[in-house]
Design a protein that fits this description.
Length: about 675
């Protein structure tokens, strides 16, 4: 079976117009309308799936693709009962994961606006015999398409390549030794590519390529755009990177750097949290692929083989509705009352840190700053408590164990040095907390500390701000009047993605222990009116830039970018991860050699423009002298009176001039005099 991309390439090489109806019967796509099966590459005007008027209930549809589905899976016990928001198979109970960004995006977009399908892996391993049943239940009940991966393949893909190679490098950690991040491993890279291809196969089962939008999330699936673009040249594809994108000096150490960049560029829209991340990506494209970006009507764009690839810069937000509903829970009020009794009623001020237990969250640096604060300000001893919530690490390995050991030993030392009976300056919570419990800590904390040494976004400050705003019921628990202005204080690292959007926060270099300690003291001593002003500024921003706003904005830009698809003629070229699509104007025609020769013979006045490097001479040649064959061809052209000998030589000498400038020959006095005299005579 000849692929569409291959057939188009043959047409381009032969100079023929592409015959889009030539291969009218191929692998059928899924049945989108009962009784009607459409084909992958049918002309849009003939495809029932592309006819918006064919179904009055048809809605825009987006396929959200991520490493994990927004689903919780639990092995069923004999006496288990299903809740209203769950579904079950013979051996499993499934329910929505309310903390998943993908699910929050759907709520933000609204059920009436767009239909959402999810593609990703389940957190639990499903036995091969159960996979068909589980797939059917998840698709029918949750509109989820699970991607089942063998355990060994998943381990090499996720814990191997993603967490030991990509993740450290994107957080500016070079594998200078085997202990510092993972050295590049070709077998792990092959596992990564294989998993991305499996994801593409799953998307193929549900996609309507003419109409659906596909939105891929994060570094786990960076080569997926290439596989999708290869199968559907006009697929409407967006990609958002939730991690940092490193500077070109760091990124170019990656052995598969060009493959990843080209995979990125097979998307139509690429999203980043901050301008710095986008700038680093554009710099890599410029230095490694020779691509220059430009601004078109206020949008940053790259031209890649005739396609326009747009760049989107917008940090993600939080789900306001979910957070406010948790703030209203009776459990939250009870936990807040408990914390007030435990800390505030004892005359102690709480500082709060919430971080994953990994090497980039800077927990140990934060603890050292707390130690420095207690040393420099003895009056804080017995009055200030740092509560550090340490979530379980998402990866695994030697580095995680080292972080845990260092954290435990530092907490022990600080408490032994500054602690008193009934008072520990540092309270470490390393067991999983329920969401409402974490929210209660936000409500009570006077200041939130986020001192990660590198983080893609980090939404902890946003959650803290909304929690501090509270509601009427929490005001009663806190003993506040409804009209009392709210306040909050943030100390954030300048190396995290949310830092630019929080202009009222105290920004710090987390590596500077003294500066972090001073920032903590400043946050505690700041005037109440100043705290209120900063809180109000942050609250307005977080309320308006929520996850729904972020998702709507990205999809609007994706739709705008993809409007040109129908006005372009596309050819797929290249093999493997070097595949890309050449998009040309509808009026484009390949020049015919017969037409060129015929036109040359008919004309009586000809202007011939020749470049030197890459035309008369090979591009990479060290010897820049023209070959005898090239000189014979030039002499033959010059003997033809219709080629206007003086002007032709003048143009040719101009190209030689630029070469001689670069080679330094123009500094020779004799050559200089002869060259410019010849130019003067010919002009």
């Amino acid at each position: 079976m000849v692929s569409r991309s291959y057939s188009n390439l043959l047409e381009l090489a032969s100079g023929e117009s592409p015959s889009f109806g030539r291969m009218s019967r191929r692998i059928p796509r899924i049945m989108t309308v009962p009784g009607i099966i459409s084909d992958i590459d049918d002309d849009p005007s003939e495809s029932v799936c592309s006819d918006r008027s064919s179904s009055s209930v048809q809605k825009d549809r987006i396929i959200l693709v991520a490493n994990e589905l927004p689903i919780r899976a639990e092995r069923k016990s004999d006496n288990s009962n299903n809740g209203g928001s769950s579904s079950s198979s013979k051996g499993w109970i499934f329910s929505w994961d309310e903390n998943s960004l993908l699910l929050q995006m759907k709520d933000g977009l609204g059920d009436d606006d767009i239909e959402v399908i999810y593609v990703g892996c389940l957190k639990e391993e499903i036995h091969l015999n159960e996979q068909d049943e589980v797939s059917q239940i998840l698709l029918e009940t949750f509109k989820c398409v699970p991607t089942f991966l063998p355990p060994d393949l998943y381990s090499r893909y996720y814990h191997g390549f993603c967490k030991q190679q990509l993740w450290p490098l994107f957080h500016y950690m070079l594998p200078l030794s085997p202990d510092l991040g993972g050295r590049f491993n070709r077998s792990l890279w092959q596992a990564y590519v294989s998993v991305n291809k499996i994801f593409a196969d799953r998307i193929m089962e549900v996609i309507n390529p003419e109409d659906d939008f596909v939105w891929v999330h994060d570094y786990h699936l960076m080569v997926l755009p290439t596989f999708l673009r290869k199968r559907f040249n006009r697929v409407k594809l967006g990609f958002f990177l939730h991690s940092p994108f490193p500077s070109s000096e760091i990124y170019k150490t990656l052995p598969i750097r060009e493959e990843l960049l080209r995979a990125f560029l097979n998307s139509d829209l690429i999203g980043f949290h901050t301008f710095d991340y986008a700038r680093h990506f554009l710099s890599c494209c410029s230095r490694m692929l020779g691509l220059a970006y430009e601004s078109k009507r206020g949008y940053i764009c790259l031209e890649y083989y005739g396609r326009t690839v747009s760049i989107k810069i917008l940090p993600v937000g939080i789900h306001m509705g979910q957070l406010q509903s948790v703030l209203s829970l009776p459990e939250t009020e009870a936990k807040v009352a408990e914390l007030l009794k435990q800390y505030c009623d004892q005359g102690r001020t709480m500082l709060l840190g919430v971080d994953d237990m990994d090497i980039f969250k800077g927990i140990s640096l934060k603890l050292l700053a707390m130690e420095q604060l207690l040393l420099q300000h003895p009056e804080c001893q017995g009055k200030v408590v740092l509560v550090q919530i340490a979530n379980p690490a998402r990866g695994r390995g030697k580095d995680v164990k080292e972080v845990q050991e260092e954290t435990y030993s530092t907490v022990k030392r600080i408490n032994e040095t500054f602690g008193k009976p009934g008072y520990d300056p540092v309270v470490l919570i390393d067991e999983p907390l329920k969401f409402y419990e974490r929210i209660a800590y936000y409500v009570v904390a006077e200041c939130c500390l986020v001192t990660a040494v590198r983080d893609g976004m980090n939404l902890i400050p946003y959650e803290y701000i909304i929690s501090r705003q509270g509601n009427e019921r929490l005001d009663k628990v806190l003993g506040l009047e409804p009209s009392t202005p709210k306040k909050s204080m943030l100390v954030v690292s300048e190396f995290i993605g949310c830092s630019p959007s929080l202009s009222g926060a105290i920004r710090v270099n987390p590596w500077n222990i003294d500066a972090v300690a001073d920032a903590m003291d400043c946050a505690l001593a700041m005037a109440e009116a100043e705290k209120q002003l900063r809180h109000e500024k942050h609250y307005r921003y977080v309320c308006t830039h929520h996850v729904g706003y972020w998702a709507h904005s990205f999809l609007q830009d994706l739709e705008r970018t993809c409007r040109e698809h129908v006005r372009r003629r596309c050819w797929g070229i290249g093999f493997g991860l070097s595949f890309r699509v050449v998009a040309l104007d509808p009026n484009f025609r390949k020049l015919s050699m017969e037409h060129i020769v015929s036109a040359y013979k008919r004309t009586t006045t000809r202007a011939i423009l020749l470049d030197y490097d890459g035309t008369l001479m090979p591009q990479g040649s060290i010897d820049k002298s023209p070959s005898p064959k090239a000189i014979d061809i030039l002499n033959s052209l010059c003997r033809d009176k219709n080629n206007m000998l003086p002007k032709f030589l003048f143009i040719l000498l101009c190209f030689f001039f630029f070469f001689f400038v670069g080679s330094g020959l123009l500094q020779r006095k004799s050559f200089n005099h002869t060259f410019f005299r010849l130019l003067w005579l010919l002009s």
